[in-house]
Amino acid sequence: MTQHLFSPISLGGLDIANRIAIAPMCQYSADDGSASDWHLQQWMTYALSGAGMVTLEMTDVERRGRITHGCLGLYTDHNEAAARRALEAARTVALPGTVFGAQLAHAGRKASCQRPWEGGGPLQPGQDPWQTVSASALPFDQGWHPPHPLTEDEIHTLIEHFVSAAHRAERAGFDYIELHAAHGYLLHQFISPLSNRRSDRWGGSLENRVRLAVEIAKAVKNAVPKLMLGARISVTDWVDGGLSVEEGIEVAGALKDAGASYICCSSGGNSPDQKIPAGPGYQVHLAEAVRKAVGVPVRAVGMIDDARQADAIVAGGRADMVALARAILADPRWPWRAAATLGHPFKTAPQLARATSLHRHWLAA
Ligand SMILES: Cc1cc2nc3c(=O)[nH]c(=O)nc-3n(C[C@H](O)[C@H](O)[C@H](O)COP(=O)(O)O)c2cc1C
Q: Hey, which residues does 20 pair with through a beta bridge?
């Protein structure tokens, strides 16, 4: 049967109202990892958007894993309580069939940076920088902090941090966990040959490089079996000698075998030398390739902002879901507009229902 943007979907036993996902987006507005009133309004807005799947921003499993001083975390009791407060509020207004996920992450060598609107570069002396960590002692770029390569013991402690954050996510009320293994953050730093030059069992062959992500996926799945588990990967580094699409497909397969019920197929982020051919739907072919080769449900992302474009990706069997980031920031009611464009019935909160006809009206104008 042909699916469309508003067909329901079930991932790892979790029922989702439609195929529209909000992609994770850092807000750089947390207080030592704790969600603030900014998150409260943001998560409530997402809850009313009509998107079936809401993956909240990169949420770091330890303090030094944050990109910036403002990044969200789940490493203290206070972080957990603050996340629970914002999530409970979001659920009071969420449309039926909306599910919420925590994207568990560690920034590795891309940690200790300024917020984007403060420059985005590495924190300078006087800005409270910290020692970063990675697979190898290779900084992201010239002028970036040289990372400390994690020892065997430190890798085991890191896996425990992911497990502890997963327990916190479950207690805070999330429906699923997404492992962030993309965009040049720590798990991707291990996966990519550009940043991993280790010669132990965590480096060298692809099997060794993906081991950390796989071990974390298995440990998290084991720790919180009631939560659905997914993963976001960079399918390619877009750099000669970096992670190729063929290897990216193998990474997806390994994560599926480790318990991931979907793979979000993104790309890049691990090298300043990347050459990304950005344009509408520029990563959809990566999702399509993973879906075909691995047989795992996939989420496509990247410059998908038009309802007919999004619907065609799902209806054409290229991806099971689409994720939108900037389009949702620009228009948090995008799913209402998509429903009007595609002629699908759409129910929103009764307080807002009288507004839905305006989208049809605007389309006709
Ligand atoms: C403000 C902002 C914050 C982002 N933060 C995250 C994040 O926390 N985790 C992540 O995996 N991707 C993050 N991304 C990447 C998006 O999830 C998405 O993959 C990317 O923006 C491409 O989708 P788009 O063209 O719909 O914006 C962020 C993007 C933006 C614009």
A: 322
